[in-house]
Amino acid sequence: MINNIKKTILVLSAIFMFALPTQAEEIQEKPSAAAMVFDGIIVRPITLVATVVGTALWVVTLPFSLLGGNAGDAADSLVLEPAAATFLRCLGCTSNGRQIEFDDE
Predict the structure, then answer these.
(1) Which SS3 state, helix, strand or coil, does residue 98 take?
(2) Residue 54 and residue 102: Cα distance in Å, rounded?
(3) Per-residue pLDDT tens for 16-49?
(4) Between the chain's N and C termini, which has fewer beta carbons within 10 Å?
(5) d(CA 66, CA 13)
């Protein structure tokens, strides 16, 4: 049973890692080096853990949310939002999306 849950979480994580980057929008932020370090060392690991825990909670509560008709909303809140914060933000940015290249003129 535990192995099936682990396999499910790994498969869902792999799907989200490959699917989410295609949905990024462009942002215009220029974060500082300190913001990048803080984001890389503190924030990203926390949001990665939130994605994994949210995925596990979503899988556990899936029968109930299917009965309630809100499985998609639960997936958005528990899995997609933390995954977007982990994988779709540029390092040090506050908004989800890809950073636009700045001209140095």
Answers:
(1) strand
(2) 35
(3) 665 555 555 666 778 889 989 999 999 999 999 9
(4) C
(5) 20
